[in-house]
Write a structure and sequence with these properties.
Blueprint lengths: L1 H4 L3 H28 L8 E5 L41 H8 L34 H7 L4 H19 L1 H10 L1 E5 L2 H10 L7 H21 L4 E5 L8 H5 L8 H24 L4 E5 L2 H9 L8 E5 L22 E3 L7 H16 L2
Amino acid sequence: MSLIVSPDGGKNLSWLCLISLLLLLLRASEVVAAENGGNVTFPALFAFGDSILDTGNNNNLRTLSKCNYPPYGKDFPGAVPTGRFGDGKVLSDLITEGLGIKELLPAYLDPNLKDMDLPTGVCFASGGSGLDPLTAGVQGVLAMEDQLKQFNDYVGKLNAVAGAENATAILNSSLYLMSAGNNDIAFTFLSARLRPMTFPDYADFLVNSTSTFIRGLYALGARKFALLGALPLGCLPSGRASVGGLLCSELANQAAQLFNSKLSAMLSSLAGELADSRIVYIDVYDPLLNLIQNPNQFGFRVANVGCCGVLTLLCNGLNPFTCLNVPDFVFWDAAHPSEKAYRALAPAIVQACSNM
């Protein structure tokens, strides 16, 4: 209690922050030692890509692709709309928590981000983004190139906070999680038709862009990568709406499957090229499709529409009313799973990452 009333309270708080930071760095060094002993753990997690992982980076961007308003965050601690594209925690939070790193993954652009948050990871993902620069450009969100630049900026800050040696250890031992391609396929190619080419050629373009992005992270110290494949886009509520609302869009699903097969093959090849790297492709297409096709087996009742039933992708801030029981729904809005659905998917992803 003396810390609160002390006239040197500011100094004492500074010491507390320093001690907290030192404890985080000690944990990072223990994680590296544990890994060298055979138990794969990670001192930090960094997320890149789209709204599946975004924890609030779009909040202060000039874009309509943001969710920092009710009813978003309805089931988040404190019922706060943080900018996450869902009713509560998103997949990046749950994977970070499942790996034992921390409970929530903060957004890098969060104005309240603290130095002590840096050594255990942050999120660079931006809702609406994709591997194609046109995807982010049209929506006014952060392109993958922008996210890479921000990570480079982060590396400089980490060096200043943790010291060069500790920073290098953290960067080399951490997990780099990525979800990208969904918006490119569903929006840029199939909906807006901004790329006049065959889809196999477009898929190759997206996969090559993924390779370039991973190489960029690798050059900055990243060594361990987990890449999520595309979702069953045709069975999202928005995908169903594109073909009348009842059935899944087979065209969208086939495109997602082709992209996933090309992505998986590229990652297997790339892992052999980048020295000391570990790269894992994680299938989210089949697990989410299983939830959609067999909702009752997982405690859901509705899988064809979102809890906030809207004609657009996102919930309407002017009409913040939603379904009465969110856990009944696989989807929160027209494009994003609910926290409960994410929780059904997360354990297998955590296990795949732990087995790297």
